[in-house]
Amino acid sequence: MNAIVQTLPRVSLPRIYALESKHEFLRLLRAPSFAVPTLLFPAMFYCLFAVLFVKNAAGDYHANIYLLATYGVFGVMAPGLFGFGVSVALDRERGWLTLKRAQPMPPGAYLASKLAMAMLFAATIFTILAVLAITVAGVTLPLAAWPKLFLVEIFGVLPFCAIGLCVGTLVSGQAAPAVINLIYLPMSFLAGLWMPLRILPPVVREVAPLWPAYHLGQLALAAVGQPSEGAMLAHVAALAAVTIVFLAVARRRLARA
Q1: How far is CA 17 from CA 22, 44, 90, 112, 247, in A?
Q2: DSSP output for 45-73
Q3: Alpha carbon of 238 to those of 21, 66, 245: distances in Å?
Q4: Which of 30, 49, 69, 203 is deepest in the core (most CB within 10 A)?
Q5: Cβ contact 76:126 at 8 Å
Q6: Angle of helix 109-135 relative to helix 157-170, nearest 10 degrees?
Q7: Could you give the CA distance from residue 63 to residue 49 in angstroms, rounded to a whole number?
Q8: How far is CA 31 from the centre of its chain?
Q9: Alpha helix positions (H), 63-209
Q10: Contact predicate 125/38, CB 8 Å
Q11: Which contiguous run of DSSP H or E holds residue 5?
């Protein structure tokens, strides 16, 4: 028995996480129903509205820069919400979670791989929008603004991963896309990601701070030097609170799955 144990190859823990993350990213990249809208919709909307309204500026507000920030947030929400919400619901329904638990792999590798996937998609969306902003929309930003916006969008996926994970533990695989869309699209509009809150009805502006997308949007706007509302630490605290609450609910649900 000792001889058999000694002959077993040693597996590097970082390699396990890296391989699981790679396969999760490739799995969703090869799924057209996920990859195409996730990567193309923010770019299409940005090209349409930023190019049309690029000359529309009032004071410190510039549509091409404003929409670079807000459509970037709109884009990075999708990998977290759909990448977790739909895939976790389907994996749970198909018994994939049970199989994962039976495998000799770290318990956290499953969720860590999905988080890495969401961040990789967020980085890709940021890159696509940045290239379009510079080449098509004529955006010029201080050099320091680009890494700030990148960090806001990469780490901004966290609360939406937590929300998606929570939804994935609560609904069926068939219902998950509809439920996520009912969260994703209205929240994007009500948070001022599609158009500035200043031109929306007062009731929308009053309830905007209820949505995590609003807080991430304000951080993104501040990163690119556009007018933003509230203290940045308050926005960070709101996003952290959303992440913790939804993650706690999802953890309890996963323990029962």
Answers
A1: 9, 33, 21, 7, 20
A2: HHHHHHHHTTT-EETTEEHHHHHHHHHHH
A3: 28, 22, 11
A4: 69
A5: yes
A6: 130
A7: 8
A8: 17
A9: 63-93, 96-102, 109-135, 145-155, 157-170, 176-190, 202-207
A10: yes
A11: helix 2-7
* Lookup: tokens for 38: 């996730």
Q: Look up residue 177 and give its two tokens.
A: 């896309």
Task: Report residue 13 as tokens.
Answer: 């823990």
**Tens of pLDDT along the chain (257 residues)?**
444 445 545 667 777 778 888 888 888 888 888 889 999 999 999 988 877 665 444 445 678 899 999 999 999 999 999 999 898 888 888 877 777 666 767 777 888 889 999 999 999 999 999 999 999 888 889 999 999 999 999 999 999 999 999 999 999 988 999 999 999 999 999 999 988 888 888 998 999 999 999 999 999 999 999 888 889 999 999 999 999 999 999 988 877 66
Q: Which structure tokens are listed for 139?
A: 């955006």
Q: What letter would DSSP give residue 9?
A: P
Give the count of beta carbons closer than 10 Å to the beta carbon of residue 177. Answer: 18
Checking phi first, is residue 201 left (phi over 0); if not, alpha (psi -120 to 50) or beta?
Answer: beta
Q: How far apart are CA 48 and CA 240, in angstroms?
A: 33
Instruction: Say what the pTM is.
Output: 0.88
Tokens found for residue 67: 């929409």
Q: Which residue has the tokens 């929306």?
A: 200
